[in-house]
Design a protein that fits this description.
Length: 196
Protein backbone atom coordinates (compact mmCIF):
# COMPACT_ATOMS: atom_id res chain seq x y z
CA UNK A 1 0.00 0.00 0.00
CA UNK A 2 2.78 2.40 1.02
CA UNK A 3 4.67 1.51 -2.12
CA UNK A 4 1.57 2.12 -4.26
CA UNK A 5 1.09 5.56 -2.64
CA UNK A 6 4.75 6.42 -3.17
CA UNK A 7 4.51 5.45 -6.84
CA UNK A 8 1.28 7.49 -7.16
CA UNK A 9 2.91 10.52 -5.52
CA UNK A 10 5.91 10.26 -7.84
CA UNK A 11 3.63 9.93 -10.86
CA UNK A 12 1.57 12.97 -9.81
CA UNK A 13 4.68 15.08 -9.19
CA UNK A 14 5.88 14.24 -12.69
CA UNK A 15 2.55 14.99 -14.39
CA UNK A 16 2.81 18.82 -14.71
CA UNK A 17 6.29 18.46 -16.23
CA UNK A 18 5.00 15.97 -18.80
CA UNK A 19 1.97 18.17 -19.58
CA UNK A 20 4.15 21.25 -20.25
CA UNK A 21 6.76 19.51 -22.36
CA UNK A 22 6.60 20.57 -25.99
CA UNK A 23 9.27 20.92 -28.67
CA UNK A 24 10.98 24.27 -29.41
CA UNK A 25 13.14 24.60 -32.50
CA UNK A 26 16.79 24.85 -31.41
CA UNK A 27 18.19 26.49 -34.57
CA UNK A 28 17.14 28.39 -37.69
CA UNK A 29 16.38 31.95 -36.50
CA UNK A 30 15.22 34.12 -39.41
CA UNK A 31 15.17 31.29 -41.96
CA UNK A 32 12.42 31.05 -44.58
CA UNK A 33 10.04 28.13 -45.10
CA UNK A 34 10.27 26.87 -48.70
CA UNK A 35 8.12 24.22 -50.36
CA UNK A 36 10.21 21.08 -50.91
CA UNK A 37 7.71 18.80 -52.68
CA UNK A 38 4.36 18.83 -54.45
CA UNK A 39 2.45 16.69 -51.91
CA UNK A 40 -0.01 18.51 -49.61
CA UNK A 41 1.68 20.23 -46.65
CA UNK A 42 0.06 19.17 -43.40
CA UNK A 43 0.75 21.37 -40.36
CA UNK A 44 0.67 19.76 -36.88
CA UNK A 45 0.28 21.87 -33.75
CA UNK A 46 3.04 21.08 -31.22
CA UNK A 47 2.26 23.30 -28.21
CA UNK A 48 3.26 26.49 -26.33
CA UNK A 49 4.06 27.97 -22.93
CA UNK A 50 2.86 31.50 -23.77
CA UNK A 51 0.85 33.87 -21.62
CA UNK A 52 -0.57 35.65 -24.67
CA UNK A 53 -3.18 34.20 -27.03
CA UNK A 54 -1.65 33.92 -30.51
CA UNK A 55 -3.26 33.15 -33.87
CA UNK A 56 -1.12 31.58 -36.59
CA UNK A 57 -1.85 32.28 -40.28
CA UNK A 58 -0.41 31.28 -43.66
CA UNK A 59 -0.14 34.48 -45.73
CA UNK A 60 -2.09 34.25 -48.99
CA UNK A 61 -2.96 36.70 -51.75
CA UNK A 62 -6.40 37.38 -53.23
CA UNK A 63 -6.12 34.30 -55.46
CA UNK A 64 -5.31 31.98 -52.55
CA UNK A 65 -1.65 31.74 -53.56
CA UNK A 66 1.19 32.05 -50.98
CA UNK A 67 2.39 35.63 -50.57
CA UNK A 68 1.72 38.99 -48.92
CA UNK A 69 -0.86 41.16 -50.73
CA UNK A 70 -1.15 43.61 -47.84
CA UNK A 71 -4.60 42.23 -46.90
CA UNK A 72 -4.67 40.04 -43.77
CA UNK A 73 -8.37 39.16 -44.17
CA UNK A 74 -7.68 36.58 -46.92
CA UNK A 75 -4.89 34.73 -45.03
CA UNK A 76 -5.46 31.13 -43.90
CA UNK A 77 -6.02 30.69 -40.14
CA UNK A 78 -4.12 27.60 -38.95
CA UNK A 79 -3.91 27.38 -35.13
CA UNK A 80 -4.49 29.33 -31.92
CA UNK A 81 -1.83 28.48 -29.32
CA UNK A 82 -4.36 28.16 -26.46
CA UNK A 83 -7.45 26.83 -28.27
CA UNK A 84 -6.00 24.29 -30.72
CA UNK A 85 -5.42 20.80 -29.27
CA UNK A 86 -1.79 19.64 -29.43
CA UNK A 87 -1.52 17.17 -32.29
CA UNK A 88 -4.33 18.75 -34.34
CA UNK A 89 -3.57 19.12 -38.05
CA UNK A 90 -4.46 21.53 -40.88
CA UNK A 91 -3.90 20.83 -44.59
CA UNK A 92 -2.24 23.96 -46.03
CA UNK A 93 -2.52 22.73 -49.64
CA UNK A 94 -0.06 21.85 -52.42
CA UNK A 95 2.31 24.42 -53.89
CA UNK A 96 5.07 24.73 -56.49
CA UNK A 97 8.50 23.57 -55.29
CA UNK A 98 10.63 26.47 -54.02
CA UNK A 99 7.63 28.71 -53.13
CA UNK A 100 8.15 30.59 -49.87
CA UNK A 101 5.40 30.08 -47.28
CA UNK A 102 5.24 33.11 -44.96
CA UNK A 103 3.66 32.39 -41.57
CA UNK A 104 2.24 35.26 -39.51
CA UNK A 105 1.74 35.25 -35.75
CA UNK A 106 -0.97 37.65 -34.61
CA UNK A 107 -0.67 38.36 -30.88
CA UNK A 108 -4.29 39.05 -29.91
CA UNK A 109 -3.38 40.72 -26.56
CA UNK A 110 -1.01 43.33 -28.04
CA UNK A 111 -2.00 43.45 -31.72
CA UNK A 112 1.64 42.78 -32.74
CA UNK A 113 2.34 40.77 -35.90
CA UNK A 114 5.46 38.67 -36.40
CA UNK A 115 6.63 36.72 -39.46
CA UNK A 116 8.81 33.79 -40.46
CA UNK A 117 11.87 34.78 -42.48
CA UNK A 118 14.08 37.86 -42.33
CA UNK A 119 14.27 40.00 -39.18
CA UNK A 120 13.40 43.09 -41.25
CA UNK A 121 9.80 41.81 -41.60
CA UNK A 122 9.19 42.33 -37.88
CA UNK A 123 8.45 45.62 -36.07
CA UNK A 124 11.53 45.24 -33.78
CA UNK A 125 13.83 44.20 -36.67
CA UNK A 126 14.62 40.90 -34.90
CA UNK A 127 13.88 37.33 -36.04
CA UNK A 128 10.69 36.02 -34.37
CA UNK A 129 10.65 32.45 -35.67
CA UNK A 130 13.08 29.57 -35.74
CA UNK A 131 12.72 27.17 -38.68
CA UNK A 132 14.51 23.89 -37.91
CA UNK A 133 14.80 21.64 -40.94
CA UNK A 134 15.00 17.87 -40.25
CA UNK A 135 13.87 18.25 -36.65
CA UNK A 136 12.48 14.76 -37.26
CA UNK A 137 12.97 12.73 -40.48
CA UNK A 138 11.64 14.93 -43.33
CA UNK A 139 9.97 17.17 -40.75
CA UNK A 140 10.49 20.91 -40.15
CA UNK A 141 9.71 22.46 -36.75
CA UNK A 142 8.77 26.16 -36.53
CA UNK A 143 8.72 28.01 -33.17
CA UNK A 144 7.53 31.61 -32.67
CA UNK A 145 8.38 34.33 -30.14
CA UNK A 146 5.43 36.63 -29.32
CA UNK A 147 7.11 39.41 -27.30
CA UNK A 148 8.14 42.64 -29.05
CA UNK A 149 11.83 43.36 -28.45
CA UNK A 150 12.50 40.68 -25.92
CA UNK A 151 12.56 37.18 -24.57
CA UNK A 152 13.40 35.30 -27.73
CA UNK A 153 12.84 31.92 -26.10
CA UNK A 154 10.65 31.00 -29.10
CA UNK A 155 8.30 29.29 -26.66
CA UNK A 156 5.00 30.82 -27.74
CA UNK A 157 3.74 28.57 -30.55
CA UNK A 158 5.38 25.53 -32.18
CA UNK A 159 4.14 23.62 -35.21
CA UNK A 160 5.68 21.12 -37.63
CA UNK A 161 5.19 19.83 -41.16
CA UNK A 162 6.71 17.60 -43.80
CA UNK A 163 7.56 18.63 -47.35
CA UNK A 164 9.40 21.88 -46.62
CA UNK A 165 13.05 23.00 -46.72
CA UNK A 166 15.02 26.11 -45.69
CA UNK A 167 17.42 26.33 -48.65
CA UNK A 168 16.14 26.77 -52.23
CA UNK A 169 15.94 23.40 -54.03
CA UNK A 170 18.82 23.18 -56.54
CA UNK A 171 17.45 23.84 -60.05
CA UNK A 172 20.53 22.03 -61.48
CA UNK A 173 19.30 18.70 -60.11
CA UNK A 174 16.81 17.17 -62.60
CA UNK A 175 13.39 16.15 -61.31
CA UNK A 176 12.52 12.43 -61.40
CA UNK A 177 10.21 13.12 -64.38
CA UNK A 178 12.99 14.69 -66.48
CA UNK A 179 15.33 11.86 -65.45
CA UNK A 180 12.75 9.37 -66.74
CA UNK A 181 12.49 11.31 -70.03
CA UNK A 182 16.29 11.29 -70.30
CA UNK A 183 16.22 7.52 -69.76
CA UNK A 184 13.64 7.05 -72.53
CA UNK A 185 15.77 9.26 -74.80
CA UNK A 186 18.90 7.16 -74.16
CA UNK A 187 17.01 3.91 -74.80
CA UNK A 188 15.67 5.39 -78.06
CA UNK A 189 19.15 6.50 -79.13
CA UNK A 190 20.53 3.03 -78.49
CA UNK A 191 17.68 1.50 -80.55
CA UNK A 192 18.44 3.89 -83.44
CA UNK A 193 22.15 3.06 -83.28
CA UNK A 194 21.34 -0.66 -83.39
CA UNK A 195 19.17 -0.12 -86.48
CA UNK A 196 21.92 1.86 -88.17
CA1 LIG B 1 -3.21 38.26 -47.56
CA1 LIG C 1 8.46 34.13 -25.32
Amino acid sequence: MKKTLAVLATTLSLLPVVANAFPIASTGEGLSVLVGGTDPIIATYQGNSAAYSNDLYLMLDGLGKPGDDGDVSNDLFIFNNHASPVGSTVNLGSFAIGTELIFRLHVTNTGDQFFTGAASRNPDNHAHARVQENWAPDTTLVSFEDLLGGGYEYNDLSFSFTNTVTTPPNPGVPEPASLALLGIGLVGLRALRRKA
